[in-house]
Specification:
The chain is of the alpha/beta class. The protein has eight helices and eleven strands. It has helices at residues 13-16, 19-26, 29-40, 50-65, 141-146, 188-205, 229-238, 301-318; strands spanning 3-5, 72-78, 112-115, 121-123, 154-163, 168-178, 210-212, 214-221, 257-263, 290-293, 324-327. Helix 3 (29-40) crosses helix 6 (188-205). The longest helix has 18 residues, at 188-205. It is globular.
Length: 331
């Protein structure tokens, strides 16, 4: 994704030859935290609620305020059937039976116990997991009230904006995150953390002194927690428009050809931030890394793997705190 940037006069000599370093230096933790805090005012931003609609409008306004002014929305319907209960019957995720004869003395199970998200492998003893929607289990009264409204079927929207490429505007990378959450909380990690990062990237790339060879679209998906319905709606509505110049001869491409999709999800430590004295939870690895994941069973697994290792090399060059690892499952 070639880029050029005008380097400030007081920049370091080595940065003048490295536009990536210039852009990385413009990412600030304070801006990120401010954006993330702004998202929490809408609670868990659960799809089908007013708090979700308000969050979409707020995100759009923020994108426009930082210079990504060509915002657009995808509108679609989401009308699921009422959920019906069902027994587990002693079966794991995806219906895989748990072998009854492989239990260990500690209650664990030997070997691979089934499939997790994205085709990942589950090992060890498991109990039923899910999202806690019990309002009374949330001790913070403010958060309880923020999340009291339940979803209703009907129209949904999601927002995106685009950095138009200078030499190949008809080709595009999509940089995304899902802005919806659930679970009577503020959806900070899942996925306010990814949403705020994409919004920060939109801010940096929208600077007037930054040019990109190809286009970049910053998309904040809705309805991810219900099964990627928002992203699916985008694909259904925009897929056939790829690479078409409209109007003819204008040099404008409403939907540039997709080169790749880079998704950001759950960017924070999974057991809480460090305490004020620098110590961390006993369950949190202090050397926590950045996971760069591609889907090994996708139709573009080879291309995705190559892109993942491009990001791994970039992380090795520019990360300041945590190493990056590449994995074959988008979990």
């Amino acid at each position: 994704m070639p880029i050029t940037a005008v380097v400030p006069q007081d920049a370091q000599d080595d940065a003048q030859d490295d536009p990536t370093q210039v852009l990385v230096s413009r990412l600030t933790l304070d801006n990120y935290k401010t954006t993330l805090k702004g998202l929490t005012q809408f609670g868990d931003r659960r799809q089908g609620t007013k708090r979700n609609r308000d969050a979409v409008a707020w995100i759009e306004a923020q994108l426009q305020a930082v210079g990504c002014t060509n915002t657009e929305r995808i509108t679609y319907e989401f009308n699921p059937e009422p959920r019906r209960g069902g027994g587990g019957g002693g079966r794991g995720r995806g219906g895989a039976a748990v072998p009854p004869d492989l239990t260990t003395p500690t209650g664990g199970i030997v070997g691979r116990n089934g499939n997790g998200p994205g085709g990942s492998s589950i090992y060890g003893y498991r109990v039923r997991t899910g999202v806690n929607r019990d309002l009374d289990a949330q001790p913070d009264e403010r958060i309880r009230e923020l999340n009291r409204e339940e979803p209703v079927n009907g129209e949904r929207t999601e927002v995106y904006c685009t950095k138009v490429g200078t030499t190949r505007p008809n080709e595009m990378y999509i940089v995304g995150a899902h802005m919806d959450g659930h679970g009577v909380n503020e959806a900070v990690n899942d996925d306010g953390s990814g949403t705020a990062l994409v919004m920060e990237l939109a801010r940096v790339f929208s600077a007037t002194d930054v040019e990109t060879e190809v286009s970049i679209r910053f998309a904040l998906w809705n309805n991810e927690e219900t099964g990627t319905n928002g992203a699916d709606a985008y694909v259904a509505q925009r897929r056939e428009l790829q690479g078409i110049e409209s109007p003819s001869g204008s040099g404008r491409y409403p939907e540039p050809t997709w080169l790749g999709m880079i998704q950001h999800d759950m960017m924070m430590w999974d057991h809480g931030a460090p305490r004020a004295d620098g110590t961390v939870s006993r369950d949190q690895r202090p050397e926590a890394d950045v996971n760069i994941e591609f889907q090994s069973n996708s139709v573009m697994a080879e291309e995705s793997m190559k892109l993942a290792f491009v990001f791994k090399a970039a992380a090795d060059a520019y990360n300041t705190d945590y190493p990056a690892t590449v994995g074959p499952h988008m979990t």
